[in-house]
UniProtKB/TrEMBL annotation:
Record organism: Roseivivax sediminis
Protein name per Swiss-Prot or TrEMBL: CRISPR-associated protein, Cas2 family
Top-level taxon: Bacteria
One Pfam assignment: Cas_Cas2CT1978
Family annotation (InterPro entries): CRISPR-assoc_prot_Cas2_sub (IPR010152)
Length: 97
């Protein structure tokens, strides 16, 4: 079960309450779960996405270890321009789509 990180910016307080029920808040708006399963991660993201679509405020990014992805990281985001992780000759970069 991989480490999962969620970063929120300018979102309603309900996100904090929900995320602290399943993750550790290590800094304002930064949440980590050292052993979150793929099923739990998908459900957490579904709740965050549904709230964000309803409320439409702020930005949320979720990152987790994924052995099959570029750089072994996968990323989901709401409220920011879409991004992807790319490998540029062994250097990982974040590129706007």
């Amino acid at each position: 079960m991989p480490l999962t990180i969620v970063v929120t910016r300018d979102v309603e307080a309900r996100y904090r309450g929900f995320l602290t029920s399943v993750m550790l808040e290590i800094s304002a708006g930064v949440y980590v779960a050292p052993d979150m399963s793929a099923g739990v991660r998908a459900r957490v993201w579904e709740v965050l996405r549904d709230w964000w679509e309803m409320l439409g405020r702020g930005a949320i990014v979720m990152v987790w270890r994924d052995g099959g992805a570029v750089g072994h990281l996968s990323m989901e985001h709401l409220g920011d321009p879409p991004k992807e992780i790319v490998d540029a000759d062994g250097i990982l970069l974040v590129k706007r789509k």
